[in-house]
Amino acid sequence: MVKIGDIELGEFPLLLAPMEDVSDPPFRALCKENGADLMYTEFISSEGLIRDAAKSVQKLDIFEYERPVGIQIFGNNIESMKRATELTAAAKPDIIDINYGCPVKKVAGKGAGAGILQDIPKMVEMTKEIVNSTDLPVTVKTRLGWNEETKYIVEVAERLQDVGIKAISIHGRTRKQMYKGSADWTLIGDVKNNPRMQIPVFGNGDITTPEDVIRVKNDYGVDGVMIGRASIGYPWIFNEIKHFMATGEHLAGPTMKDRIIAARRHLEMSVKWKGETLGVLEMRRHYGNYFKGISHFKEHRMKLVTHDAASDVFAALDEIENVFA
Predict the structure, then answer these.
(1) What pLDDT score does 67 carry?
(2) Residue 311 belongs to domain with CATH number
(3) Domain residues for 307?
(4) What pLDDT does residue 54 have?
(5) Which among 111, 166, 195, 258 has most CB atoms closer than 10 A?
(6) Same domain? 14 vs 100
(7) Which of these is catalytic: 81, 102, 241, 271?
(8) What string of H, E and C letters represents the secondary structure of the chain?
(9) Is 31 a catalytic residue?
(10) Regions of the chain where pLDDT drops below 70
């Protein structure tokens, strides 16, 4: 049984990665229904939280049906991160996660996210202060290192464990790689198989099929996997992996009707939570995956991603149902 603190996650948990503008409550609801064992929110700016910025505060929204759920925070100022930890704990998540992995320039360039991989002593000190600021279990999401020359993840994971984190998720790329090239799981395996490591080690990167999960489980011994991009517009991936792990057989994929129902529910929840303008806009990144591989679909997809009114998008989904389902 894999546990984070006292939270039991099953024998080989599947985690939903924190993804900006993706891992919001509507999307998490669908992933939970489809087998995700632990989910993380979008990352939340510590500076935004302590300044009571509306967008940051809204990201603290979590719901009982999601549990267990972790809220992820990021920042480069230790005092701000400690204060943000207190504000985050007040939202009553099950876990607080620290983002040490985001590679985008506006985050990493300011020494937050993966940027802190250039200052390991500060990374360890910040983690220690955050752990000491809350009674909730603290986890970390990070990368192998800043670049090829600084892949110190085996030592870093040990040091973070020593200051009290309860689990670590490692993306198998450096910050310099961004999302290019292939994820290197060898070092993730080295972290897991380090005899000093006692906490769960989750791997992340290039998990797109059930076979990928079996391979990394067998080859690297990880305690579970975190799935990011492969789940966008395809929440079914969690149950498909679980079915394959249990039976060795592939679960039948979603029918066209399943895809339409999921897209419609996702849009309904998105509009309800964010309001119509943003709810419609931020759904656009999901449709390509909801309807991936469908022949003669371009005209319908264009309607889904260009309409601004929710009623028009729902009408486009109705039209898709009439044509395809």
Answers:
(1) 96
(2) 1.10.1200
(3) 256-324
(4) 84
(5) 166
(6) yes
(7) 102
(8) CCEECCEECCCCCEEECCCCCCCCHHHHHHHHHCCCCEEEEEEEEHHHHHCCCHHHHHCCCCCHHHCCEEEEEECCCHHHHHHHHHHHHHCCCCEEEEEECCCCHHHHCCCCHHHHHHCHHHHHHHHHHHHCCCCCCEEEEEECCCCHHHCCHHHHHHHHHHCCCCEEEEECCCCCCCCCCCCCCHHHHHHHCCCCCCCCEEEECCCCCHHHHHHHHHHHCCCEEEECHHHCCCCCHHHHHHHHHHHCCCCCCCCHHHHHHHHHHHHHHHHHHHCHHHHHHHHHHHHHHHCCCCCCCHHHHHHHHHCCCHHHHHHHHHHHHHHHC
(9) no
(10) none
